[in-house]
Write a structure and sequence with these properties.
The complex is a heterodimer of chains A (111) and B (112). Chain A is an all-beta fold and 111 residues long. Chain A has strands at 5-7, 10-14, 19-24, 30-38, 45-50, 56-59, 62-67, 72-77, 86-94, 99-101, 105-110. Chain A is globular. In chain B, strand 4 and strand 5 form a beta hairpin. The chains are: A mainly beta (111), B mainly beta (112).
């Protein structure tokens, strides 16, 4: 079983604060790294697909970076808002097109 | 239908009973997947199908079976449910194997 780890498991921040969390994955057989946003009682929603070392993606106040050599990706949220409260899930995709999901980082933004 | 539809949304099932979870997509995606989500364990792949007519085993296939008779439907069957199969089940699809997923809204199954 392949390990994809996310940290921290949960995070509480004040509205307006910026925050970031980590997804660690194996550096071998890398194909892509996917980020999903998962609100309670809804299904995961795709945020980013990252494929190249050094890749940086941005969507509004959310951005992500990728380091395939050392096996990590950071997700950043600038100026957190209550609507950003969700679980953020990463998934490592290997060259065999298999997906391995992390356990997620649960973010709560306090108004 | 827009995206993926799962049914039922929740179910309480007696141990030993047979149950089929339904999953239908209208995006003509080639690949479909069933995951279970358990607290602290993230999403674990049960079975997958890369294209209609083919299926494969994922990380936790025991006690489950699937079929893929056509592109749109990918039902998951529990032949004889056990309490350890209590979980939230997510169906997902992707345009092709390995591309980004679209998820269904999940089925919460409790086996008692």
């Amino acid at each position: 079983i392949l390990n994809v780890e996310q940290s921290p498991q949960s995070l509480h921040v004040q509205e307006g604060d910026s925050t970031n969390f980590t997804c660690s994955f194996p550096s071998s057989n890398f194909y892509a790294l996917h980020w999903y946003r998962w609100e309670t009682a809804k299904s995961p929603e795709a945020l980013f697909v990252m494929t190249l070392n050094g890749d940086e993606k941005k969507k509004g106040r959310i951005s992500a970076t990728l380091n395939t050599k050392e096996g990590y990706s950071y997700l950043y949220i600038k100026g957190s808002q209550p609507e950003d409260s969700a679980t953020y899930l990463c998934a490592f995709r290997n060259t065999g097109n298999q997906f391995y999901f992390g356990t997620g980082t649960s973010l709560t933004v306090i108004p | 239908i827009a995206g993926i539809t799962q049914a039922p949304t929740s179910q309480i099932l007696a141990a030993g009973r047979r149950m089929t979870l339904r999953c239908t997509q209208d995006m003509r995606h080639n690949a479909m997947y069933w995951y279970r989500q358990d607290l602290g364990l993230g999403l674990r792949l049960i079975h997958y199908s890369n294209t209609a007519g083919t299926t494969g085993k994922g990380e936790v296939p025991d006690g489950y079976s699937v079929s893929r008779a056509n592109t749109d439907d990918f039902p998951l069957t529990l032949a004889s449910a056990v309490p350890s199969q209590t979980s939230v089940y997510f169906c997902a699809s992707s345009e092709r194997t390995g591309s980004g997923y679209t998820f269904g809204s999940g089925t919460r199954l409790t086996v008692v």
